[in-house]
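hey can u check if this looks right to u? its 495 residues, i copy pasted from the old doc so theres a chance i mangled smth
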Amino acid sequence: MRTHSFKIPRFSARVVTIAIFTFMAFAVTFAHAGPKYAGIVMDAKTGKILYSHKANNTRYPASLTKMMTLYLVFEALDQGTITKKTRIRISKYAASKPPSKLGIKPGRTISAEQAIYSLVTKSANDVATAIAEHMGGSERNFAARMTKRARQLGMHRTTFRNASGLTAKGQVTTAKDMALLGVALREHYPKYYHYFSTRLFKYGKRKYGNHNRLLGNVKGVDGIKTGYTRASGFNLVSSVQRGKRSIVAVVLGGKSGKSRNAQMKKLISTHLKKATRKSKRSLLVARINLPSNQLASSIVLPKLGPMPVFRAQIDDPARLRIEQAHVASIAYAPNEQPLSKNSVSAIRNKLIMLNNSRAPIPQQKQVKKIDAVLTASIKPKVAVGLVPATPRTPNNNTNSKSSENRVFSGGWQVQIAAVPNQTDALLLLSKTRKKMPNLANTSKYGEIHDYLEPIVKNGGTLYRARFAGFYSKKLARSACKAMKKRKISCLALKG
């Protein structure tokens, strides 16, 4: 009887060991993660993706949503539309939100800074909702603004339905989008970012610890936010700065807080060493508005429009000169936005610098008497921005389908005057804002901006001075009612 022998291939012990550990590492990484898991590690200096797993798949954000809520709060603080001492009222709707919450009774208030602390530590849903109502008029309006800002920051797969992160139909995000938001918070608002490293928050007689257990336990972790709902699983965004290296890491859909934290620690230890040690050259996420403290020397003037020249004698306010020269083309270009108040201020400072500080700061002129009858009788045609200087006549084709009317028509406005001088019209808008502290650029009424419209009437030119951008007819009328109490003539109009 013949026997057959088979030769078994011989592998070195080293090869076998490597194979076993590789398989075990793969199994450990994903065995506990579950189908909801998604993750990413981004180099915070270069934007390079150091690790990615289903990073573009949509997931429920849970309380990571509050990162965008806080982004808009920091934006408002930076623009001066609110301060850290601004009181935020808790409505019945806000107080009704389920935990996690502070449990503040309806009608009571909390300062903006206390609200920030409550979001980064306790992740208070009632306070997040109150912020939305204070800044947006309603949570729905505020959520729409959150989504708009997300798109502008490059978060193309994120949609917000509320300010708290409580599960809502259509409210989704991705690991990559949350990484971008984490980077944006660090880049755009470094003077407020320190709030995310808060370990303990005291409100009343109670103390609230931060839900982020990696703070103080993992070297270099300085924030940012945790989140959990049944639909989302356990989420975490972490910012890490160790030595010259810097990353933002995201874990979505963890099975438990413990496994989520373990996965985050693993991502940090494995991928932080891959991040660059070189200096950061530019922002990874473009800012929407220039900060108020931006140095004039770093501003690049828009190329659209003629460059204003130095004149020893001038009657127009500096803002009007600059806006006429630079904003007209921008404000009416599709997909663009008018320059913000801070942008105009920065450009003005740039012009002063270019003229060796010799540019005059014009004095405002006295306001002429306003015809109240004219004010109440004029109807609007367009809704946004500082218009070009060419007046419109009553015989113009009002059905024109120009790009200006297509892009900017509609909305609710409040008209305060119709005067024959453009400078006076701007001054009236400015003085009204001072008398109406609630009429901020971003307020409960809407995203309010100044608007002028010249019109030729009876052989002369009138300038309609209005505030545009009200969210609804009710809010426009409410603002007008408040103005009348301060003896300011006004009329709420549909654009």
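The chain has a mean pLDDT of 77.
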